[in-house]
Amino acid sequence: MIQLTRINGTVLLVNEHFIEIAEETPDTVVTMQNGHRYLVKETVQEIIDKSAEFRRESYPNNK
Questions:
Q1: For residue 1, which of 13, 16, 51, 54 is within the disulfide window of CB 3.0 to 4.6 Å?
Q2: Domain carrying residue 48
Q3: Does 8 reside within a domain?
């Protein structure tokens, strides 16, 4: 799971495997596969970086 921050400052843990779309409109909206949408402070690039870091830590032998 990756940690994101809602616009109001609360922490949101998201299973990054279930992110369907992340878009900046200009605020970042993350849409999950189940249709739930979250408005977050992180940019799309930060979400990509957090997802990549999670995968590196979770699957260290995966090349």
A1: 13
A2: 2-58
A3: yes
Task: For residue 51, tell me if it sits in a domain.
Answer: yes
Q: How many CB atoms lie within 10 A of CB 62?
A: 7
Beta strands in the chain (DSSP E): 2-5, 11-14, 19-24, 28-32, 37-40
Is the bond preceding 26 in cis, omega lying within 30 degrees of 0?
yes
Low-confidence stretches of the chain (pLDDT < 70) are: 62-63
Look at residue 63 and tell me if it is in a domain.
no
Going from the C-alpha of 24 to that of each of 27, 33, 56, 62, the distances in angstroms are 5, 18, 25, 30
pTM score, whole prediction: 0.88
The pLDDT of residue 10: 98
